[in-house]
Write a structure and sequence with these properties.
Blueprint lengths: L8 H5 L3 E4 L4 E12 L5 E8 H10 L8 E2 L3 E4 L3 E4 L2
Parallel strand pairs: 1-6
Antiparallel strand pairs: 1-2, 2-3, 3-4, 5-6
């Protein structure tokens, strides 16, 4: 799953609701974790969701904490993001 090349594409994720394949609500995106690729682009590794996502955003992520892997994203809909659980 790829984001548009528009710089606003990442900010479009923040606040979006996340649902699993069965339609169950998992929370909202509060932050993402990623890394710089060799060609200078940012690659999203995982989405930080829910109350734990807020906490990680405020204090910074710990090494032992994980969010929803970007590889689990199935659909970036206008209303919500669907992920494989």
């Amino acid at each position: 799953m790829e984001l548009r090349e528009d710089p606003a594409a990442f900010s479009d994720l923040v606040g979006r609701r996340i649902r699993d394949q069965a339609g169950r609500a998992l929370g909202r995106v509060f932050e993402a974790r990623g890394h710089w690729d060799r060609d200078g682009t940012i690659v999203i590794d995982e989405l930080l969701v829910g109350r734990r996502g807020i906490w990680r955003r405020l204090r910074g992520p710990g090494e032992d904490e994980h969010g929803i892997p970007w590889a689990a994203v199935l659909d970036l809909g206008d209303e919500h993001i669907v992920v494989r659980t």
